[in-house]
Amino acid sequence: MKDEGRVRGVMFDAGGVLTRPIGGRWNPRYDFEGIVMTHHPQVREGLFPEAIEAGQRFLDASTATANRTDYHRTMLAALGIDCPSEQLLQHLEAPAAGPTIEPYPDVRRVLDQLQLWGVRMSIVSDNWAGLEATFASLDIGHYFEGFAISEVLGCRKPDPRMYAEGNRLLGLEPHECLFIDDDPQLVAAAKDLGYHGVTLDRDAQQSTTSDVIVSLSDLLPIIEARRAADSTW
Question: What tens digit of pLDDT does each residue of 79-132 get?
């Protein structure tokens, strides 16, 4: 990376970098089937995989963060529920009875160390509003100076406005920030805009390039090297 000594802040993607879904999937959340069956016990369980695929196609086709109600309506229609009740829709959008995501085991240690070093941190995530409250409930929200959320901003990565909001929250310039995501294309877009960038591939056995890491812990040597190189840190 160029100008290696000038990284003073880290902009994190959320899902796949800091958090993982309980139940093994991001969307819909783990209690979707149970809620639907409570309201419509006649629905055939074999239809759920097709409905979830229809919902994913709806999300993928959206240029901005999709409306959550429309997302649920798409899946319900695939289940044969063309006119869902307001009670069902509200139930699907209400907070879950328990946590829906959890931090990866390496997250708190890394965030503690970055905070100790005085590294500023923000979240840049394609997500629905409310991620701040979720992170607070996981006791990791206090590490971050702000959240750039796609539903709030009305755009998604790689739109430059997402990254710009992330570094604005830190009070830093792009060349002073490192962006980390599990999508290499989004990291490449950040680097094109003047940010430093690292891809986190948790499924890989080992790093293939200097810009790919396989554990969040691998971020620490990168930041430490830039701290040592910058006498003005």
Answer: 999 999 999 999 999 988 888 899 999 999 999 999 999 999 999 999 989 999
pTM above 0.85, yes or no: no
Q: In terms of domains, do 77 and 61 share one?
A: yes
Full residue range of the structural domain in which residue 136 is found: 4-22+100-229
Confirm if 65 and 89 have CB atoms less than 8 A apart: no
Question: Do 39 and 80 fall into the same domain?
Answer: yes
Both 42 and 111 in a single domain? no
- Closest CA relative to residue 78, chosen from 99, 50, 58, 105: 50
Residue 175 in any domain: the answer is: yes
What would the DSSP string read from start to end of 46-94?
GGHHHHHHHHHHHHHH-SSPPPHHHHHHHHHHHTT-SS--HHHHHHHHS
Task: Label residue 143 exposed, middle or buried (CB < 10 Å: 0-12, 13-18, 19+).
Answer: buried
- The total of structural domains in the chain comes to 2
Q: Do 154 and 82 share a structural domain?
A: no
Q: Which of 77-81, 94-98, 182-186, 212-216 has the lowest mean pLDDT?
A: 94-98
Q: How far apart are CA 218 and CA 216, in angstroms?
A: 5
